[in-house]
Write a structure and sequence with these properties.
The chain is built from ten helices and seven strands. By secondary structure, it is an alpha/beta fold. The protein has a seven-stranded parallel beta sheet with strand order 1-7-6-5-2-3-4, sandwiched between helices.
Length: 242
């Protein structure tokens, strides 16, 4: 991967470190996470919600691979796709039932990726400020945070919902809210996560454990990690150089 340090043998990208640190800070880093494919195994939830509700209406299941293409992308794109698969007179009802089924499955079937909670514990205990930034709807994000005990780790939550904002916009807002927390990292598995980092001068961390976007979407990552716990070492190393 061009420009990325990969795996457990990674090294700090010195050029990225120089641009991301800013003036030396004593209050810890800002670490912003995507949710689906980064913290949360959404493919345990959304494809099953689609299958259950489509079956209820006698519609063909589009399948796991088709649904996975939309995980982590803006919610408006996913919902437009769902609506396109439904009879027009039933489309809105099917979409709403699918969204409700998804919320139920977040609670009953959803899981954090292995190592995520240990990572969050370690980063919080080290005094870093943690936030999430998602393309998903607010009720989805809130359900996930509460069902899986993630909210107490966070100092801020940003959900795109159907508003005309980008992840880069939401990341800029978080940087402005926490100006004394540097360096700043954006951790995700989609191209718009890497773009949000690039536009805002953050360290782009690509994750290889979820991989909804695939490696081609992570070409802008400074580091590609394969286990959530590796992030703790990455942040510690950058802090030692800032």
């Amino acid at each position: 991967m061009q420009g990325a340090e990969e795996g457990c043998g990674w090294r700090v990208n010195r050029i990225v470190a120089d641009s991301a640190c800013g003036p030396r800070r004593e209050k810890g880093a800002l670490v912003v996470f995507d949710i689906d494919g980064t913290l949360f195994e959404a493919d345990r939830v959304t494809p099953e919600a689609v299958r259950v509700v489509f079956s209820r209406y006698g519609l063909s299941d589009p399948g796991m691979d088709a649904v996975r293409r939309y995980l982590g992308r803006p919610v408006a794109e996913y919902e437009a796709w769902i609506l396109s698969l439904c009879p027009p007179e039933q489309a809105q009802n099917i979409l709403e039932e699918t969204n409700l089924e998804e919320l139920s499955l977040i609670r009953s079937a959803g899981q954090l990726y292995p190592g995520v909670r240990e990572m969050l514990d370690a980063l919080r205990d080290a005094g870093h400020t943690l936030a999430v930034c998602s393309n998903g709807p607010e009720r989805y994000v809130s359900c996930f945070l509460d069902a899986h005990g993630v909210r107490p780790y966070l100092s801020a939550v940003r959900a795109r919902d159907n508003r005309p904002v980008t992840k880069a916009d939401m990341a800029a807002d978080l940087l402005a809210r926490f100006p004394d927390r540097r360096p700043a990292f954006f951790v995700g598995d989609r191209q718009d996560d890497m773009e949000a980092a690039r536009v805002n001068g953050m360290v782009a961390i690509g994750v290889g454990w979820g991989g909804f976007g695939g490696k081609h979407e992570l070409a802008g990552a400074a580091h590609l990690l394969h286990d959530p716990r590796e992030l703790v070492q990455v942040v510690d190393e950058y802090m030692s150089r800032c």
